[in-house]
Specification:
Blueprint lengths: L3 H11 L4 E2 L2 H6 L14 E3 L4 H14 L2 E5 L15 E5 L6 E5 L4 E4 L5 H9 L3 E2 L12 H7 L6 H4 L6 E7 L5 E5 L11 H5 L8 E8 L1 E2 L3 E9 L2 H13 L6 E6 H11 L9 E9 L1 H17 L4 E4 L3 H12 L1 H6 L4 E4 L2 E2 L5 H14 L3 E7 L4 E8 L4 H20 L15 H7 L2 H14 L25 H11 L8
Helix pairs in contact: 1-3, 8-10, 8-13, 13-14
């Protein structure tokens, strides 16, 4: 626990309004969007300036407590779960768009800006910010950069790192660094920007972010295709790709998810269908209309038993609601919903979805699967009850099987949600030692006392009590003697 002397120093930095440590506040920030996991922080601080954040980090190094950055807390891998002896740094009140530069197609933003609000603001100016995570209505841009968030439009437009030109960041030493700028070309020095993007709050705290914008697509067309099996939908994805058509999105739902969505939203979906594929193309009107005709033809040739084409924006929104309401629809079935993500090459999509279905049967649990068919990113979603410890154990075992199968097929353990606490063991078990060791070395070098979001992504011992362990084996031996810190939160 943080002692009273440290709390006094924190109050001196942040003032009475910027320091919280009541039981209610500590409980409010003890969890994020990740089910089942929680841990109480010792205090919460709300900064008013970069200098305050820098002072907090320097104090943490001096007094040996930890700092856990937090935006909206919508993460799904335990990235903002407090650690032992920790202070939560709450950034969601930093919510200003500082500058919208139409000449350079850029925007300076504070990290607490809500993603969907930012998208609406730039779209009102005829501009476009493509990254669109499923939690866009509540997640923050700082959290998006920290997690390198993706979304439905990732197939054509990429993910957050593709639109992050630079930022101001407080490093684990308390130093403030500015990196990047409005130049479209800049290869001066190491690409440190991309080291920090996706670092999940373990290497720095973003205080200002420079984002790239693009012109708003002139036109779009949305289609919904129904198949007897996921194999037919996967064949359509391959055929569209082979036809050199690049949709803005290609999303799928399996049968359990279709039934849940129809029961929730009453969209008129065929609940007897094996899979649903949502495709949207955008760009110049003539090209979009040509692509839409070609996509519809491909869907029918590859086995779609029905294809619905939106006639206008209102109907397109209705068709897209089938995909966007998937999580909400599944969440109403059981008390606890565990949304995961794993990514495989597109060619392995049908194999992976079938494996997930068989795995659910093997472990006697319910799983509905939906996701981004165009880039192979799947979201198997377990419907369970955290009060039933036996069922939770079976669910954990099922996801163990799923992640290992994804890697076996040439995929990865996470395409969007990050590693955080929940997938750390897979990163350390399934990937080459040099890969993990380089991350450990980077963390140790930038954060020698282990004060920023410790034990997320990888397990690294702080340097504060003497020399660092000289090998991964020594680190593992120390962690084994201590017990894995993450186990206390699960």
């Amino acid at each position: 626990m943080i002692n009273d002397n440290v709390k006094k120093k924190l109050k001196e930095i942040f003032g009475d309004k910027g320091f919280l440590d009541s039981a209610e506040d500590r409980i409010s920030y003890s969890y994020d969007g990740t089910p089942v996991i929680s841990a109480l922080p010792d205090a919460i601080v709300i900064p008013a300036s970069v200098d305050q954040i820098s002072a907090l980090v320097r104090l943490a190094n001096d007094e040996k407590f930890t700092v856990v950055p937090r935006g909206s807390g919508s993460g799904l891998s335990g990235g903002s779960i407090p650690s032992e002896n920790s202070v939560v740094l709450l950034m969601n009140q930093w919510n200003k768009v500082i500058e919208l530069d139409k000449n350079n197609l850029t925007a300076w933003v504070e990290p607490g800006v809500i993603t969907a609000r930012f998208q609406s603001q730039v779209e009102s100016q005829g501009l476009f910010y493509p990254p669109d995570p499923g939690s866009a209505q509540i997640c923050t841009l700082g959290g998006n950069v920290a997690e390198n968030a993706g979304g439905l439009r990732g197939l054509k437009y990429g993910v957050t790192k593709n639109y992050t030109l630079g930022f101001e960041v407080v490093l684990p030493t308390g130093e403030v660094m500015k990196i990047g700028g409005k130049n479209m070309k800049d290869v001066a020095g190491y690409n440190l920007k991309d080291v920090l993007i996706g670092s999940e709050g373990t290497l720095g705290i973003f205080t200002r972010i420079l984002l790239k914008l693009i012109p708003m697509p002139a036109f779009s067309r949305t289609l919904l295709a129904f198949y007897d099996s996921i194999g037919g939908a996967a064949e359509t994805v391959s055929a569209i790709t082979a036809a050199r058509i690049m949709p803005a999105m290609m999303e799928f739902l399996d049968n359990p998810t279709i039934r849940a969505v129809e029961g929730f939203s009453r969209l008129g979906l065929d609940t007897n269908t094996g899979a649903l594929l949502l495709v949207e193309v955008d760009g110049p009107r003539s090209a979009v209309e040509e692509d839409a005709v070609a996509v519809e033809k491909i869907c029918r040739i590859t086995g779609a038993k029905n294809v619905r084409v939106a006639k206008d924006d209102a109907e397109a929104a209705k068709l897209k609601a089938a995909r966007k309401s998937a999580l909400a629809a599944l969440a109403r079935i059981r008390p606890t919903t565990i949304l995961e993500d794993a990514t495989v090459p597109r060619s392995e999509l049908a194999v992976m979805v079938d494996f997930i279905s068989q795995t659910a049967k093997k472990h006697s649990i319910q799983i509905g699967t939906f996701g981004h068919a165009g880039d192979g990113n799947l979201h198997p979603t377990a419907l369970t009850d955290e009060r039933d410890h036996a069922e939770i154990k079976r669910t954990e075992e099922a996801f163990d099987d799923i992640f290992r199968k994804a890697v076996e097929l040439g995929g990865t353990i996470t395409g969007e949600h990050g590693v955080g606490l929940t997938k750390k063991k897979f990163l350390e078990e399934l990937y080459d030692s040099p890969f993990v060791r380089m991350m450990e070395t980077t963390k140790q070098m930038l954060d020698p006392n282990g004060i920023l979001n410790p034990n997320k992504v990888i397990s690294v011992m702080p340097r504060c009590e003497g020399a660092l362990p000289k090998s991964r084996e020594q680190i593992e031996s120390i962690m084994k003697r201590m017990g894995n810190p993450s186990e206390a939160y699960i």
